[in-house]
Amino acid sequence: MDGNSVEPRLSAPDKVMSNYGLGTHEYFLEKIISTIKKQQSEEAFYVLDLGVVINLMDTWKRNLPMVQPFYSVKCNPHPDLLATLVAHGSSFDCASRSEIESILALGVSPDRIIYPNPCKACSHAAVGVNLTTFDSVDEVHKIRKLHPECSLLIRIKAPDESAWEQVANEFQVRCSSRRSA
């Protein structure tokens, strides 16, 4: 390019679609507008391209084979999305018993599920998930009593003044609050 010409810039969605051979943002917008006009519906909707999900999972596995992703089911529990993630080797972050049961129903082994709910009901220990989080001594004792073979991860709230956004989560152990169990 010469010094006077300007290289066309793609929007972020166009870059993603272009990188994965999916056309352009404008192409998808035209398809969406056409569909809306045909349906004449006032209901809210969203567009999910499972091809992008597949490509992203493949990219993840190729570039980070030693890191197992855990998809947070509460973000989007659409059955087609979950089935696609199952087929491509994702593990799952399930915050409720119903989320755990929906993932188990897809044939996922309990060892591919983490149950990070900070206040687990006693009845939830029976679902067979062997990885969970805790943020208090009382929670450790409850888990050890109900599900002794369960592996535990501590939820730590590490100070980070440089973070753009502070996560407001009272269900984490502050680094300064250490107490032996």
Question: If you had to describe this structure to a student in words, what would you say it looks like?
Answer:
Among the domains are: 44-114, no CATH class; 118-157, no CATH class. It is of the alpha/beta class and 181 residues long. It is built from six helices and seven strands; from the N terminus they run H-H-H-E-H-E-H-E-E-H-E-E-E. The protein is 36% helix and 11% strand. Helix 3 runs parallel beside helix 4 (79-87). The model is unreliable at 4-14 (pLDDT under 50). The protein has a three-stranded parallel β-sheet, with no helix packed on it. The longest helix is centred in the N-terminal third of the chain and has 15 residues, at 25-39.
Mean pLDDT across the residues is 79
Secondary-structure element order, N to C: HHHEHEHEEHEEE
Quickly give the structural class: alpha/beta
State the share of residues found in helices, binned by percent. 25-40%
What is the count of helical runs?
A: 6
Which geometry do the CA atoms define?
Answer: elongated
Name the strands of the widest sheet in spatial order: 1-2-3
How far from one another are the termini? 66 Å
The beta-strand count equals: 7
**Strand share of the residues?**
5-15%
| Rg, nearest Å | 22 Å
* Contiguous runs where pLDDT drops below 50 for at least 5 residues: 4-14
State the oligomer. single chain
Q: Could you give a short account of the major beta sheet? A: 3 strands, parallel
EC number: 4.1.1.17
Pfam families: Orn_Arg_deC_N
Domain Orn/DAP/Arg decarboxylase 2 N-terminal: 53-167
Cofactor: pyridoxal 5'-phosphate
